[in-house]
Each structure stands twice: as C-alpha cells, then as structure tokens.
C-alpha cells in the first residue's frame, strides 16, 4: 500500500504518524522548506494545542454532527495520551485551553516532526503538489518534477489564512478537479474594519467588553472577552470569535454591524444611576472626569465627542437625557463593519471542502475511493481556544487510521 499526504501541517503530520505507527510509511509532501509552520506560529508562539471541553458548539455551526463524530473518536483524553506517547506533556488552564507544558510551540513542532522521522515517514519539504489525477484505481501526483503513483491520497493542505506561512487554496483546486463541491473560503479569527472613524481615535485601548453581531439588522450572538481598538477598526478575542460569522456575512454581501458593550458588568439602568450619583456627589467634576472613573481616557473623550457633549461641562449640569444617552452609548455603541483585516492577519479560513461529501468517521471522500481530506481544508472552522488545532489533530488521526485499512 502506497500512500501520499499533501500538506505537512498539524493534520498531515498527525495522519502520517498514525499511518506509520500501523506499519504504512506515507510520503509527506510539503511546499515550504519546513513542516508545520502554523504550529510554530500558533498561540503567539505558545501553541494553544487543544481544549479539554470540545463539542460542535465550539465550531461555526454548519456541520455539528460531522464535528461531534470526529471529536468523539479522538477526544481530549485520546489526544493527551497521544502527546504523552511522543514525549509531549501538556498544561491545561482553568478555562480548558491547553498548551504544551514547556509553553513553547517549538516543543509541539519538534515532537511531531521527530516522531514522523523516527517512524520512517518520507518527509519531502519544498515539494509543492501541483496536480492530483486519478489513475486506474489510484492516483498520480505531479510536483513539477514529474509524477508519482499512489493507492491513497490525503489532502491536508489547509486553507488561505496566513499566506506568509504557506496558506493557500490548492486543496480546493484539487478537490474541485476530483469532483468535490467546495464552499468558497473567507478569512476568520481576524480583526474587523469599521466604517466609522471613531475607533482610530481610541487606537491601542484594550477593554473587557462584549460584542453583539447584527446581520442585516437581525441581532445575533454576543461574544465576550477583550476588545482592542485599532487604527483600522477593532480586534481582540471578542472580535476574533465574532469575525467567523461577520466575515462570512460580508463575503455574501450582507450588512454587518456590531454593538459594543463597553461595561458589560453594569446593566444599563444601574449605569445611569451610578453616573448620576457620581455627578451629584462631586459637583466640581466635569463630565469627562465622571466617565474617566469608569472607562479609559481615550474612550471617554471619544464617546463624549460622538454625543456632542462638551468635555468640560460640569456633571451637575447634565440632564437626565444626557445621562441616558451616555449610558446607552456605553451599553451599545454601534459600528458598521466594512471588511476584515484580510487573510494575512487571519488565523484561519472558513469554508472549504463540503463535509456532506466526506465520511466523518474516516475522512474518506464519498465521491472518489482512496481520497481523503483532513484539517482546515474541510468546511470546519472553530472558535479561538485550541479548537482549530484539535480538529486538525482529530481529522488527521481518523484519516491516518482509515488510509492504511485494507
Ligand atoms: C498566527 C496563527 C496562530 C494560530 N494559533 C492557533 C492556536 O493557538 N490554536 C489553534 O487551535 N489554532 C491556531 N491557529 C490555527 C491553526 O494553526 C490551523 O487551524 C491549523 O494549523 C490547520 O492545520 P492544517 O494541517 O489543516 O493546515 P496547515 O497547518 O495550514 O498545513 C497545511 C500545509 O500544507 C502545505 N501545502 C499547501 N498546499 C500545498 C501543496 N500544493 N503541496 C504541498 N504542500 C502544500 C502548507 O504549506 C502547509 O504547511 C493559528 C493560526 C495562525 C495563522
């Protein structure tokens, strides 16, 4: 049995190791000079490798049954045992996010590469597969220097996010040419550009906030976490999670706005009372002084400018209507999203090979016998928190087992 794996990221490396552990040595093709470059870059160099709490709720809700089936077979304990077997110990934070004990992505990269080489996987860096053709009952792979025949092929080429780390859409080209349907990709886990100029004035300020998504005016999910104002718009964890759906909606021409709650710990009514109390107790406070007691300076100043309330006005001179307007703006400041910060800055891409045409237990194509898909190239995208890497490990593992079965 001769098998090829196209793309040596998390999914491809896991599939190669799994197959080799069962006695079949795969050829692993990688276009870059180094395997697993996204593993090295992940989690800001610390690699949020997985999460103890895994379910389809943590993934963009297109294929819940597919995701749950894959996660059930290769769950967190199974992954943890695998890591230990290759000498990689893990550390889990109270919220479930899991990192290598070393806190360095290099450890993950090193352990996967070492294990693949130790098991005799044929690692071929700087070999970009250009075409996959069906030949007889198998396949011929073309890498620019000639063709090589294989019985089974796994496409684990990832998607278009982070082109500087090898992100591309080759996998979708292969899938389409072999008869598969694909959902056109969109950048995800990425900052959002806003129509308003205000965010630029608050650039560099990070707060604990909530962002609620509105698509064509319809209220959607609310995402909590930190929110960072930037020169182009907004980023931060709350926005990255919201971006999966926001980006897809923009790509399909829909109108996207976000409502930012700058102080989610206070309900709007109690906020009005608090601000009024602060003004009553300190008659000499300006309205800017009052706001600076609860929010960062740049935000306080910009918010008052938006509401056209003079910064130096005494708090005691504010009307109940002014207080209600300030509290409303704090509780839901609306911004219109124009575009995302683009693939270069995206951690992942949504869309990919349609999961309807792939078996969730084996990652085998339901259309082409002997063809498999794993990792981000499939139409699965997870939130932040280790979910994307876990899906890559799990689907790579399932493909690795299935590919060596006679
Ligand atoms: C900056 C950054 C930080 C991230 N942090 C995290 C994190 O902390 N936790 C988390 O869960 N996820 C994180 N992610 C997402 C995660 O890294 C990916 O979802 C995951 O690596 C996908 O694995 P994959 O194997 O499917 O694809 P990839 O890792 O993209 O691997 C695909 C490989 O295929 C190669 N390739 C492509 N085309 C060809 C071809 N034609 N021939 C040969 N080789 C080819 C590519 O060069 C690449 O090496 C992060 C991503 C980025 C960019």
């Amino acid at each position: 049995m001769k098998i090829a794996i196209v793309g040596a990221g998390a999914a491809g490396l896991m599939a190669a190791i799994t197959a080799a552990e069962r006695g079949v040595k795969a050829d692993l093709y990688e276009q870059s000079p180094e395997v697993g470059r996204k593993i090295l870059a992940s989690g800001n160099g610390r690699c949020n490798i997985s999460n103890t709490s895994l379910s389809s709720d943590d993934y963009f809700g297109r294929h819940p049954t597919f995701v749950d089936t894959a996660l059930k077979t290769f769950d967190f304990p199974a992954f943890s045992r695998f890591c230990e077997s290759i000498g990689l110990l893990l550390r889990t934070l109270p919220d479930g996010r899991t990192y290598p004990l070393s806190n360095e992505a290099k450890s993950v990269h090193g352990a996967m590469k070492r294990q693949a080489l130790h098991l005799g996987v044929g690692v071929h860096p700087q070999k970009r597969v250009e075409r996959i053709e069906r030949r007889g009952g198998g396949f011929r792979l073309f890498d620019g220097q000639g063709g090589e025949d294989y019985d089974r092929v796994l496409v684990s080429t990832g998607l278009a996010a982070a082109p500087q780390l090898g992100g591309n859409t080759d996998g979708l080209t292969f899938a389409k040419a072999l008869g598969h349907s694909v959902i056109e990709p969109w950048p995800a886990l990425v900052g959002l550009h806003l129509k308003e100029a205000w965010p630029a004035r608050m650039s560099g300020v990070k707060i604990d906030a909530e962002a609620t998504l509105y698509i064509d005016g319809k209220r959607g999910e609310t995402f909590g976490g930190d929110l960072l104002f930037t020169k182009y718009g907004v980023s931060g964890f709350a926005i990255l999670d919201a971006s999966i759906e926001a980006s897809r909606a923009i790509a399909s021409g829909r109108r996207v706005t976000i409502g930012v709650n700058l102080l989610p710990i206070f309900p709007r009514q109690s906020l009005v009372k608090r601000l009024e109390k602060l003004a009553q107790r300190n008659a000499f406070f300006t309205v800017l002084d009052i706001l600076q007691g609860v929010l960062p300076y740049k935000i306080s100043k910009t918010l008052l400018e938006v509401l056209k309330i003079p910064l130096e006005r005494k708090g005691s001179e504010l009307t109940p209507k002014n207080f209600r307007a300030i509290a409303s703006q704090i509780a839901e400041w609306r911004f219109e999203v124009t575009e995302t910060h683009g693939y270069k800055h995206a951690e992942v891409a949504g869309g990919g090979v349609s999961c309807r045409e792939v078996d969730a237990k084996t990652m085998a194509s339901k259309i082409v016998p002997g063809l498999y898909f794993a990792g981000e190239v499939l139409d699965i995208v997870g939130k932040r928190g280790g979910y994307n890497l876990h899906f890559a490990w799990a689907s790579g593992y399932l493909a690795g087992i299935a590919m060596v079965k006679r």
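Residues 387-403 form the longest helix (17 residues). The radius of gyration is 25 Å.
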